[in-house]
Design brief:
Blueprint: E1 8-12, E2 18-19, E3 35-39, H1 45-52, E4 70-71, H2 76-82, E5 86-87, E6 91-96, H3 102-115, E7 120-124, H4 129-138, E8 147-150, H5 154-164, E9 168-172, H6 189-206, E10 209-215, H7 227-231, E11 234-239, E12 246-254, E13 262-268, E14 271-274, H8 278-282, E15 293-300, E16 303-315, E17 323-326, H9 330-344, E18 351-357, H10 369-380, E19 389-391, E20 394-395, E21 401-402, H11 407-416, E22 421-425, H12 426-435, E23 443-447, H13 451-455
Parallel strand pairs: 6-10, 6-11, 7-8, 7-9, 9-10, 17-18, 19-22, 22-23
Antiparallel strand pairs: 1-2, 1-3, 4-5, 11-12, 12-13, 13-14, 15-16, 16-18, 20-21
Helix pairs in contact: 9-10
The protein binds thymidine-5'-diphosphate and magnesium ion (MG).
Magnesium ion (MG) binds next to helix 3.
């Protein structure tokens, strides 16, 4: 690191790469125009401490493994995404757009935790204790005491934590915290890096679980360097459409559990309410007997969720047809349109196509392919897709329908919600026929290629 007075260095906003001069392209992550100038850190207090103790390697055979200690938050959807509760001594980052409900979610978590006799500290750099109290009043009764601190100076926060020794600490938000020694503004790359490393040290040395809130930039990543995500144990993103009341909590990284789990909530006047049956919720308001609407099933972690895919295909008025994809991958949609054009001989090149995954969930699973194609065909032919049928399957470039994982769970979820027929990859149907599982009165229709889809509308 460069030394000296009043010097500045340049950091990559994406990955935290450090350079003495400005660079157009980051050598670390190869992104362009990501360098920002910041003052040099004069002393790094955390580093001095760690140098005093001589490091000793451990023998593998002598390392005692104890199961990590977990505390249930009492909010089932949050526990699921965390991988079965809060791990003692872990550092969790909760990211999301401003106003999505991060503070509300974590305050509700605090409410549940204090009710189970935990000592909890909520540190806010954004709101006064009065404002937090007003929010807490909306959330209902706090049976035991919750400790509040309105502070942005990290050293004072650390001081309070060291004296108080709480079980769980919430820091709202990482972008408002700063350390005096570091010359740069709160929210800058070096401040975020430093505050996170101090909190990490605190969490590990005192066995305190720390939750930090981070705001997200327009590009959809937590403001500050990616390095923040590398440092913490768990990264959760809270997302949803601003106008809709559903909120999805998604695990992006988890050192103590699987990632792709999601938790579903609804924002109400009294805070966030868990949605334990998301399929039912996602299909609310689905139009009956309209063309361009198809129900499919996506696996979110271990949980099948039924979702409606909508397509609107119409004659284009432009030289270049317009294509949009909301809630799914734009390039995948383009690819599937090309497969339809080539393999079914339909002139998609003359058509605009708008694809929407209803409900505000973002899904990138290939099992959605067949649903997207069915919705496009339904809209193109102006013919409704049977409303008691669901379909799922991955589609290849030759138009073949390929088997997907966990087909049985998907079929069972559809049966639970009253669907009568399921179009699925032939490969999956064969396996199910062999296993002879009881799937109620669900009719299974195996499909080999997308040609067969045309005959089953
Ligand atoms: P908030 O938790 O402050 O969002 P963030 O911390 O992610 O910026 O949530 C703010 C929004 O939630 C605000 O628009 C008001 C709404 N809200 C409710 O609808 N009901 C409630 O009970 C609460 C506390 C907030
Ligand atoms: Mg907030």
């Amino acid at each position: 690191m460069a030394k000296g007075k009043n010097k500045t260095v340049f950091f990559c906003k994406e990955c935290g790469y450090e350079s003495a001069k400005w660079l157009g392209q980051c050598p670390g992550c190869k992104e362009w125009n990501t360098f920002v100038e910041e003052p040099v850190i004069k002393t790094a207090a955390g580093k001095e401490i760690s140098r005093t103790a001589a490091a000793e390697p451990s023998r593998l055979s002598e390392v005692r493994v104890t199961e990590e200690v977990r505390t249930l938050t009492g909010i089932g959807e949050l526990d699921r995404v965390l991988g079965g509760g809060i791990v003692t001594g872990s550092l969790v980052l909760v990211g999301g757009d401003p106003g999505i409900g991060k503070s509300t979610l974590l305050l509700q978590m605090c409410q549940q935790l204090v009710n189970t006799e935990k000592k909890v500290l909520y540190v806010s750099g954004e709101e006064s204790v009065k404002q937090i109290k007003m929010r807490a009043d909306r959330l209902g009764e706090f049976k035991k005491e919750l400790f509040l601190l309105s502070e942005t100076d990290l050293d004072r926060v650390v001081d309070v934590i060291s004296r108080m020794k709480p079980d769980v600490v919430v820091i709202d938000s990482i972008q408002t915290m700063y350390r005096e020694e570091i010359g740069s503004m709160p929210g800058s790359v070096s401040q975020i890096r430093e505050t996170t490393s101090v909190l990490l040290h605190l969490a590990k040395s005192m066995a305190i679980s720390v939750f930090v809130i981070g705001h997200v930039t327009k590009e959809g990543v937590v403001a500050g360097p990616r390095i923040l995500e590398h440092m913490v144990d768990t990264v959760l993103y809270f997302e949803g459409e601003g106008s809709a009341s559903y909120r999805f909590l998604r695990g992006v990284k988890n050192r103590f559990g699987s990632t792709n789990e999601i938790g579903v909530f609804e924002m109400r006047g009294c805070g966030l309410v868990e949605v334990t049956n998301p399929s039912e919720y996602m299909l609310q308001g689905k139009p009956e007997n309209e063309s361009g609407s198809v129900v499919t099933c996506s696996m979110e972690g271990t949980r099948p969720i039924l979702i409606e895919v909508q397509a609107l295909v119409c004659q284009t008025n432009f030289n270049m047809p317009r294509r949009t994809a909301a809630g799914t991958d734009y390039n995948r949609v383009n690819l599937l349109m090309a497969v339809i054009e080539k393999r079914l001989g339909l002139r998609m090149g003359d058509c605009d196509a708008y694809i929407n995954v209803a409900g505000g969930l973002r899904i990138h699973e290939p099992a959605l392919d067949l649903g997207i194609i069915a919705a496009v065909l339904s809209s193109y032919r102006n013919q409704s897709f049977d409303s008691s049928t669901i379909c799922f399957g991955e589609v290849g470039l030759v138009g073949e329908v390929r088997a997907v994982a966990m087909a049985e769970q998907r079929v069972l979820e559809a049966a639970k919600l009253g669907f009568k027929r399921c179009l699925l990859p032939q490969g999956n149907k064969r396996q199910m026929d062999i296993a002879k599982k009881n799937l109620g009165d669900m009719e299974l229709v195996g499909i080999d290629t997308i040609h067969e889809l045309l005959g089953v509308f």
